[in-house]
Amino acid sequence: MVEGVATRIFVAVPLPDEVRMALFDRLGSLDMPGKVVPAENWHITLRFLGWADDVAVDRMLAALDEADLGAPFDLMLGEMGAFPRPRNATVI
Fold this sequence. Notes:
This protein is α+β, with helices and mostly antiparallel strands.
């Protein structure tokens, strides 16, 4: 992060390798605009927090380090969707 520049921050769950590979295979057969970001960057966003400066990012990371994040959980993926709309999706 460049000092003094705001960055978008969010809380997310990384995807297991087998899920990423299955999604990668599925995406290859879809006709979508744009390009696919590298699979190692794929995640499930739990909460978008907005734009923040270095101090706010450090505070958020410190709070997460001390937070009780609860027990691990299972998640089942269903059908894919697109945001904001399928024709000009920026997120699936």
